[in-house]
Amino acid sequence: MRISGRGRRTTFSAAAVIALALALLFGAGQATALPADPEGSVRQYAVAGVDTAAERTRLARTGTAIDEVREDSVVITADRAQAGRLSGLGYRLTALTAPAERRGGLPGAAAPADYHTYGQVLTAVNAARAQYPSLVSSRVIGRSYQGRDIVAIKISDNVAADEAEPEVLFTHNQHAREHLTVEMALYLLDELTTQYGTDPEITQLLNTREVWIIPSVNPDGKVYDQESGSFRNWRKNRQPNSGTTAVGTDLNRNWAYRWGCCGGSSGSPSSDTYRGPSAESAPETRVVADFVRSRIVGGQQQITAHIDFHTYGELVLWPFGYTYADTATGLTQDDAATFRALGTALADTNGYTPQQSSDLYITDGSVGDWMWADQGIFSFTFEMYPTSAFGGGFYPPGSVIPRETARNREAVLTLLQYADCAYRIIGAEARYCA
């Protein structure tokens, strides 16, 4: 999802133009013409003529999850029935070829084996803990709907102690199909451990910060999407919805701030953006929220900064998502200026586009809004590589994993540097951090 916002640098890339042209060249149907896919199978479609935040929000309110934002269109994932309904509402859809179908030297999708499985992630965590016992610990903070462990890793110089230091949280894989985010978690685990004592900046930061990493918020969805032998394009968790055959809640619409308030999620259990019957109804959301609440010590939230990693679009996003307004109740001018300045500084390190979340379209019940409004945590959402479906969409090839995870190294270190007082970036530390 990539779009320019509020006079910031132009973000619509030549790659996006090429992507659409190549999609048309390599098998895309004509606008509104649906391919002969079996009922229930899903694929991506370009939806033309959707080029403002209001128009994107209007499309999202049909229950459609928007995968990618282009200058004058969006890309969505839909099954044939959903695509037909949207065509009936007047939207102009063009079916895109799946990345795995592209040939002739075009980038293709990964194979499931390109990414670590859930079990391999746990093995890597255990290995790091064994190799760096004074630096790494881990704990099971709860379990998914199907009973899988949700693990939080702690990294700090004196890991066994709960020191009075700023804490920074990194969460990954809220959406099942976004496997590159799990690789991002494993990269951070490796980089922060292997470089401690060697890299002066990492050493200084881990001596003065406590880092938490949750590699997979949605392990059931990850397993379901990855481990059948082929990707399923699955987004939600795997919790059945009572009274319907539909399965799953969109975890990033299930958080308990402005839940279901503003047309930024769906009340339909079959929708990819289904918000669930109530806030924190998904066990995975509740587990992570409870963990964050557990970090309130002496009435003070110890976690000061947070990144929730997603794919794709190469964006740095910040609250609020539920309103187009730059400021709102609980988000002052200084707060907004700090988010903008720090978000821009993060984006300057990785080449992503910085913008307020609602510059894309309205969302409600999102983790970033909850982290800030409920817990006072400076929370950012990173949409990782690629910029478009052309680069593999949700399933970029495994060959890009080292490059695209390392690409966020400096952004992570920058956030850690400002974790003691984010307001320092606007020169307001004396007012807020004394």
What would you say this structure looks like, in words?
Residues 1-33 form the signal peptide. Pfam families: Peptidase_M14 (PF00246). It is a single chain. With 434 residues, this protein is α/β, with parallel strands linked by helices. The protein has two domains: 14-110, Alpha-Beta Plaits (2-Layer Sandwich); 113-432, Aminopeptidase. It contains 13 helices and 14 strands. It has helices spanning 14-25, 53-60, 80-88, 118-131, 180-194, 200-208, 219-226, 283-294, 333-350, 367-375, 401-406, 409-417, 429-432; strands at 42-48, 66-69, 73-79, 92-95, 136-143, 149-155, 167-172, 210-214, 296-297, 300-301, 303-311, 315-318, 353-356, 378-384. The protein has an eight-stranded mixed β-sheet, sandwiched between helices. Strands 2-3-1-4 form a four-stranded antiparallel β-sheet, with helices on both faces. A two-stranded antiparallel sheet has the order 9-10. Helix 4 (118-131) packs parallel to helix 5 (180-194). The longest helix has 18 residues, at 333-350. The model is unreliable at 1-36 and 102-106 (pLDDT under 50).
| Rg, Cα atoms, Å | 21 Å
Task: Tell me the fraction of residues in β-strands, as a range.
Answer: 15-25%
Q: Number of folding domains?
A: 2
Shape: globular
Order of helices and strands: HEHEEHEHEEEHHEHHEEEEHEHEHHH
Q: From the helix content, strand content and strand pairing, which structural class follows?
A: alpha/beta
Fourth-level CATH superfamily of the largest domain: Zn peptidases
The second-level CATH architecture of the largest domain is: 3-Layer(aba) Sandwich
Main sheet specs: 8 strands, mixed
- Total beta strands: 14
The separation of the N and C termini measures 38 Å
The chain-level mean pLDDT equals 90
- Note poorly predicted spans: 1-36, 102-106
Organism: Streptomyces boetiae
Keywords: Hydrolase, Metal-binding, Metalloprotease, Protease, Signal, Zinc
InterPro entries: CARBOXYPEPT_ZN_1, Carboxypeptidase_T, Peptidase_M14
Cofactor: Zn(2+)
